[in-house]
TrEMBL record:
It comes from Arundinibacter roseus. GO terms for molecular function: symporter activity. The keyword Ion transport applies. This is Sodium transporter. GO terms for cellular component: plasma membrane. It is a multi-pass membrane protein.
Length: 574
């Protein structure tokens, strides 16, 4: 990397932080800080959901698999599209209809405080490991491309994410996610054509890679593994507490569905785009081994991108990781503040104090995640961490809760029993069985056990034990509360809309300015890119046009909102 690359990285990092910090004024009450006023535009929440799922881990974990095994990395990621579609059809609207702000609140009201505490504490631990697993790969990418140590990269990047997430809350997360999506998409759209040019075209690329490189299933990533992964992602996308916030932060159940459909649509296309660079790099340099293959993506970028655009690519990786990390940290802070601090420690806490606690806990959780990220190289690498945590905790902790969205019969005892048994089985096969019996499950079997065991146990409770039971009394109590909450929300809609319209307009203006400045920066970098000027400057120009259109839309929305407010204020006198 050259000096201009470092300047580009620094500029985009500072710009992203400024955008996030600008939303500190919108996070002055708990509903805005933790749920974006429950009226965020669906397309912003959808892009945020997509970016929250995406991270540098996509380019390190799946990029490593793409380099070593080829097309199967795309196959694996298409399972996320299927998970998004199932969530859109069946799950997303269910979450919005619960009338809750967080998944933890739903568990408390539907299953009781005891069950809520169990899931809260366990999922907090799991999420901290996932967040650490998110921070590690971006540190690895920056480390590969710069003279800084891996530890320094992880710590500095983690502190940046903590800062603007703690100040701006969910609105900062949503808007910076959109900005990060734009930066990442622009960088990859530039990288892919240049990578093909380096390998002398698609035909030469196909000839230079192994003969099994384009198999749909390859290595340990078999058909069985993929089917289990599809089941896991239905549960994960539909039940992850961080993603639930995307479904509950929009206005209506129909918009919740749109959030999931947008996610699915993006994941139907993006894997083909994301995975090409490391696959092409295999044709250029087949000698990477072990954990070296985790850096294939960045090595490809360094090989083909002109000066300045390597920094843009790295900024895009940082952005993708920041998106996932800030989502997880905001969710953890929301859960602790609303469902532990307020419920158990200070029930009478004011909105202002809740926001302060939320910001403080964002910092605390962020620092713990940084510590975990520093340990990743010592626990078998990122692939092992991500897939193992997902297999053990995904089905056991998420599926039972998602199941209750459809079942009137399940109760606190059945859900706790299923979760505990499923966790015990997963941990046994991951930790005990290999040590005592020298037997460990394959990737496919690990995923199948992780999802299959809780599904089987829930089915047993549903039809064999609760077969004659009409509904759990706690379900009836929760449903009455949800109906009353819905009526109260509808009655207060006019007052809510005034505040949320202002927030939405501010968000659209911030996105518009971000698009325009990003586009101008990319176009400016393209001026010195020689024969690639048309490609790079063209992408930058498109961003400027899109930013202008969003700004115009924000102005139109603002005018319409003011006119509507004026009419509402005059109406009593008519």
């Amino acid at each position: 990397m050259q000096q201009l690359d470092f300047i580009v990285m620094a500029v985009f990092a500072v710009f992203q932080m400024v955008v996030g910090l600008a939303f500190s004024r919108t996070g002055k009450d708990s509903k805005s800080f933790f749920a974006a006023g429950e009226a965020a535009p669906w397309w912003i929440s959808g892009l945020s959901l997509f970016m929250s799922f995406l991270s540098a881990g996509t380019f390190v974990v799946w990029g490593s698999i793409a380099y070593n095994l080829g097309f199967v990395a795309i196959t694996i990621q298409l399972s996320m599209c299927i998970g998004g579609l199932v969530t859109a059809w069946f799950i997303a609207a269910k979450w919005k209809n619960t009338q809750v702000m967080t998944a933890a609140e739903y568990i408390g009201r539907r299953l009781g405080v005891r069950v809520q505490q169990f899931f809260t504490y366990l999922l907090t631990i799991v999420t901290l490991f996932i967040t650490g697993g998110v921070l590690y790969p971006v540190g690895k990418l920056v480390y590969v491309a710069t003279p800084f140590s891996l530890e320094t990269c992880i710590i500095v990047l983690g502190l940046m994410v903590i800062l603007y997430t703690a100040m701006g809350g969910l609105w900062a997360v949503l808007v910076t996610d959109v900005l990060q999506f734009v930066i990442l998409l622009s960088a990859v759209l530039i990288l892919v054509p240049l990578a093909f040019d380096q390998v002398e075209g698609p035909g030469a690329f196909v000839e230079k890679v192994p003969v099994d490189f384009f198999q749909v299933f390859n290595g340990e990533y078999t058909l069985e593994f993929t089917l289990a992964f599809v089941m896991y992602h239905i549960v994960y996308i539909g039940g992850s507490w961080a993603f639930v916030q995307r479904f509950t932060s929009v206005r209506t159940p129909q918009e919740s569905k749109k959030v999931a459909f947008l996610f699915a649509g993006l994941y139907a296309v993006s894997p083909f785009l994301w995975m090409l660079p490391p696959m092409i790099y295999r044709a250029l340099n087949p000698s990477l081994s072990g954990l070296e293959s985790e850096g294939a993506y960045m090595l490809m970028a360094q090989r083909v991108l002109p000066v300045g655009l390597v920094g843009l690519m790295l900024a895009a990786m940082v952005s993708a990781t920041a998106s996932t990390a800030n989502t997880l940290l905001n969710m953890l802070a929301a859960v602790f503040t609303n469902d532990v601090y307020k419920k158990l420690l200070r029930p009478a806490a004011s909105d202002a104090s809740l926001v302060k606690v939320g910001r403080s806990m964002t910092v605390v959780f962020g620092l713990i995640a940084i510590g975990i990220a520093l340990l990743v190289p010592h626990i078998g690498g990122l692939v092992n961490l991500v897939l193992s945590i997902g297999a053990i905790s995904g089905g056991s902790l998420l599926l039972p809760v998602v199941w209750t969205l459809f079942s009137k019969r399940q109760n606190a005892t059945s859900i706790l029993t299923v979760a505990l048994i499923s966790l015990a089985v997963g941990l046994f096969f991951k930790l005990v069985s290999p040590a005592l019996f020298s037997f460990s499950l394959s990737r496919a079997a690990e995923m199948m056990v992780g999802v299959g065991v809780p599904a089987l146990l829930l089915a047993v409770f549903e039809w064999l034990i609760f077969g004659k039971k009409i509904s759990d009394p706690a379900y009836d109590t929760f449903q009455r509360w949800a109906d009353e909450r819905q009526l109260a929300n509808e009655a207060a809609a006019a007052e809510v809309n005034t505040g949320t319209n202002t927030q939405n307009t501010f968000a659209l203006r911030a996105i518009s300015i971000s698009f325009i400045l990003t586009g101008l920066s990319i176009a400016g970098l393209g001026i010195n890119s020689g024969e690639n000027i048309v490609l790079i400057a063209g992408i930058g120009s498109v961003l400027v046009l899109v930013g202008g259109w969003i700004g115009w839309s924000a102005r139109t929305t603002s005018v319409a909102a003011r006119q509507s407010t004026a009419v509402d204020e005059k109406e009593p006198f008519l």
